[in-house]
Design goal:
The protein has a domain of 80 residues. 56% of the residues lie in helices and 0% in strands. α3 runs antiparallel to α4. 11% of the residues are buried.
Length: 157
């Protein structure tokens, strides 16, 4: 088996620099180049044509949007509450109609349950004491109560 420790000795005897030894460079070479480049950045370049002056550019400010309307959390909760109440209204109208079967009402009730879950998650971020949160919570409770009643079979006669 070849002894690995003798590799560095062989390369040094052949005139090849040993593995792992750093090349000797001028100390601070990069720092010198960087300092020179930064020093020349403030001076005018001699290669520029006459009459060309360097001017400082001002940064762009904020550009206002005229047609952009951002919805805040209360607008989102308000819209979802309105949609849920609309579905509950359609659900109650179908329940009152004797020609509509309970089987045809089931998909609407599933949609109501999904909207109620979504609204509950959104309304949590509104904070305590918010009137909109109270209304949203009451709508969610009404929707979930109707879902449980329907699944339990309260409307089967």
């Amino acid at each position: 088996m070849v002894n690995i420790n003798h590799i560095n000795e062989l390369t040094q005897s052949m005139g090849v620099p040993a593995v792992g030894t750093p090349k000797t460079e001028k100390a601070g070479g990069f720092e010198t180049v960087l300092t020179q480049a930064l020093g020349q950045a403030g001076q005018t370049d001699e290669t520029e044509p006459p009459g060309m002056e360097t001017t400082a550019a001002t940064a762009l400010g904020e550009i206002p949007s005229t047609g952009l309307y951002l919805k805040d959390q209360s607008d989102i909760v308000s819209g979802k509450t309105d949609a849920l109440l609309g579905l509950l209204d359609a659900y109650s109208n179908k329940l009152e109609n004797p020609d509509v079967t309970l089987k045809s009402i089931a998909p609407i009730l599933e949609q109501i349950n999904q909207k109620a879950d979504s609204l509950l998650k959104e309304s949590i971020s509104l904070g305590a004491g918010n009137t909109l949160k109270d209304i949203a919570t009451q709508a969610v409770i009404a929707a979930q109560t109707e879902y449980v009643r329907f699944q339990r079979g309260d409307y089967v006669s």
